[in-house]
Amino acid sequence: MNLQQLKAQHRAKAREARALYHKITDDTPEAEARKIERDFNAIMLDVDELRDRIEDVEDRAAGDRPDPRRPNEDAEGRGVDLGGNSEHRAAFCNWLRAPKSDRTRQELMEAERRTASSLTDAAGGYLVPEVIMQPIFARARDVNPFRSVVRVVDVQSGDVRFPLSESDADSGWVGETDTRTATDEPTLVSKTPTFGVCYSYVKMTEELAQDALIDVGAWFQTEAGRALGEAEMNAIISGNGTDKPSGFLNVAPESGDDGSRTADALKYIPTGDASALGSDAGDKLLDLYYDLKSQYRANATWLMNSSTAAAVRKLKNGSGDYLWADSLQSGQPPRLLGHPVAIAEGMPDIGADEHPIAFGDWNQGYILAKRGDLFVTVDNNITTPGLIKLYIRHRIGGCVYDENAVRVLKCAVS
After folding, report:
1. How far is CA 174 from CA 167, 169, 178, 260, 297, in A?
2. Cα–Cα distance for residue pair 229/140, rounded to 1 Å
3. According to the model, what pLDDT value does residue 68 have?
């Protein structure tokens, strides 16, 4: 399919989506509105897929020309100031205040044509300006600590694979003039992230949108960042790989040694108690710590939620000293056995067969892949009169990269 055909298909799908949500009025029964909303979301997945395919074709045709979707970078990725982002931001914020206005929609589309992509429309979604998008992702990092510790990569295709060495290369010793015999070459395996559209609905009242004293752009940054951060965090932990990242707990952790477990299965250390951390929890943390190989331990970070942290913070060693040490420097994370602790509220609570604590080199253990930018659509009171619902979305993927780089503690006898 050529570029013109892709664009025609994209426009047709966008029109279909727009016509669908215009079917809903304030009198539409809630059950029917919910069904139409689900159908709308399904069509929007097709719209996003077509947009990505169009962008791929245009990228290949553009060669070394600067990417028009990234107005702050030149052809070599260096930051440049094209002066158009402030215009885009102003048009975007005006549209948030009056999403039903033909004038604000037209102004935003004109700003996008000058600074970003002309592929979007009222159904396909508008590109969030860079000066708003970056604070959104910064806020997402605050909510989702995995963004700060896992490997985050930008990709141009959903069909991407990351090679991983099995570390099984052979070696030997010889004298200076002895014959060298061939050694085994290392085995490479391919790790493939599973992708999906990470989306959230952010709601605001029409009164809030119209209030001139409210910085609607700053409000949107905070709310969108929180919503996306929570969705990403839950996917990285327990995503099932179907239209979303594969979480590191998606394949049940096993107790076997490295090299003997199911692919992508982390190793767990049992607490010795069926539903709790056990009476010797401090020793179990030490077992978990030293079971991780030294090359991973050097850059390792602890992950747990606040409830688990409250229990771990009370643990002491044989000398009566707390294992947990609060940082003396503002903004720095606390440390447990000398390593930083990140609080991820999506981690499981302490309970039977749960994995409430994880420890490892997350940069080696997990890959979060991002594709494309952040888009937003206003669905015009699709189910709730008086509220404006902002449908925000971007495409991400994820997978366990090196299952030997992370260990988890499991509430189990063995």
Report:
1. 22, 17, 6, 31, 33
2. 4
3. 39
Residue 229 zone, left/alpha/beta (φ > 0; ψ -120 to 50; rest): alpha
Q: What is the DSSP letter of 404?
A: G
- Give the separation between CA 365 and CA 271, rounded to whole angstroms: 22
- pLDDT tens per residue across span 376-387: 887 655 556 677
What letter would DSSP give residue 331?
A: T
Task: Identify any residues that bridge with 162 across adjacent strands, giving them in sequence order.
Answer: 191
Phi-psi region of 337 (alpha: psi -120 to 50; beta: other; left: phi over 0): left
Q: How many CA atoms lie within 13 A of 337 on its CB side?
A: 20
Q: 327 in helix, strand or coil?
A: coil
Burial of 29 from C-beta contacts in 10 A (0-12 / 13-18 / 19+): exposed
First-to-last alpha carbon distance for the chain, in angstroms, is 56
Amino acid identity of residue 42, one-letter, is A
* Beta-bridge partners for 366: 400
Of 301, 308, 306, 365, the closest CA to residue 338 belongs to: 301
- Rounded distance, CA 38 to CA 31, Å? 11
Of residues 279, 275, 258, 280, the one with CA closest to residue 267: 258
What's the rounded Cα separation, in Å, for the pair 54 and 58? 6
In 252-365, where do the E strands start and end?
267-270, 301-304, 324-325, 335-336, 339-343, 357-360
Tell me 228's DSSP state: H
**Distance of alpha carbon 364 from alpha carbon 384, whole angstroms:** 44
- Tokens read off for 65: 């020309």
Rounded Cα distance, 50 and 149, in Å: 32
pLDDT tens string 292-311:
999 999 999 999 999 999 99
